[in-house]
Amino acid sequence: MAGHSKWANIQHRKGRQDAKRGKLWTKIIREITVAARAGGPDPDSNPRLRLAWDKANAANMPKDNVQRAITKGVGGADGSNFDEIRYEGYGLGGAAVIVDCMTDNRTRTVADVRHAFSKNGGNLGQEGSVAFMFTHCGQFVFAPGTSEDQVMEVALDAGADDVTTDEEGVIEVVCPVSQFAAVRDALAAKGLTPEMADIVMKPNNEIELAGDDAIKMQKLLDALEALDDVQEVYTNAVMDEQG
């Protein structure tokens, strides 16, 4: 995989997120509101809310903001009427893209998503057109230098499906969504802190893009992530570092 570094891709993604902290907070607040509305205000009995709460802490969001979002969700107050919508499409080189949104205006959102695809060399597909290329799962990523043996022992005992290490020493743990909380808590109990921990749509296979295709694909992903209604963007494209 010449020029491709999973670690570089992860750090690049985190850097883009950190650079858009205000936008990140907005996304987390929406997620907290919807999670509280769907499963109640107690993060200990609402795994989705617990995950959103953890993201809020990681983003240094004030607790008052978190509590307001929970109250809004539980009370059904103004602003909690978001619908969750998933769009699927294609980018450069036939790469698959999934766009998860929360919106109070479906017409606006689909127009914005379609425009981002068409302006950047992609196209919006039908529902189900690419989702089968991904697996809904929990994912933990550990930095090079982390003890592979320790991560593997703890994660597998807690219900993880797989633990892999790439040539750079990046450790990835994959688990069923239902086991995410158990694996997260077991790792934390042993002082194992992942660089990334989330419930994701993980591509079953990756498509490598290089040169102009990689540059254009990154522009498409950036355009989608910049949309106000977009919560997450997933792709099976891996951009060459040269791109």
Automatic annotation (TrEMBL):
Q: Which domain of life is it from?
A: Bacteria
Q: Does the keyword RNA-binding apply?
A: no
For the keyword Ribosomal protein, the answer is no
Its main localization is cytoplasm
Query: GO biological process: what's one of them?
Result: regulation of DNA-templated transcription
Provide any one GO MF term from the record. DNA binding
Q: Which UniProt keywords apply?
A: Cytoplasm, DNA-binding, Transcription, Transcription regulation
> GO CC terms for this protein?
cytosol
Which residues does the UniProt record annotate as the domain TACO1/YebC-like N-terminal? 5-75
Q: Where is this region: Disordered?
A: 1-21
Looking up Pfam families in the UniProt record yields:
TACO1_YebC_N, Transcrip_reg
Q: Which residues form the signal peptide?
A: none
Matches recorded under InterPro entries: Integrase-like_N (IPR017856), TACO1_YebC-like_2nd/3rd_dom (IPR048300), TACO1_YebC_N (IPR049083), Transcrip_reg_TACO1-like (IPR002876), Transcrip_reg_TACO1-like_dom3 (IPR026564), YebC-like (IPR029072)
According to the entry, every stretch annotated as the TACO1/YebC-like second and third domain falls at 83-237
From the Swiss-Prot or TrEMBL record, state where the protein is found.
Answer: Cytoplasm
Q: Which NCBIfam families does the record cross-reference, listed alphabetically?
A: PRK00110.1 (NF001030), PRK12378.1 (NF009044), YebC/PmpR family DNA-binding transcriptional regulator (TIGR01033)
Q: What family name appears in the similarity comment?
A: Belongs to the TACO1 family.
Return the protein name: Probable transcriptional regulatory protein G3I67_02640
- Protein species of origin: Sheuella amnicola
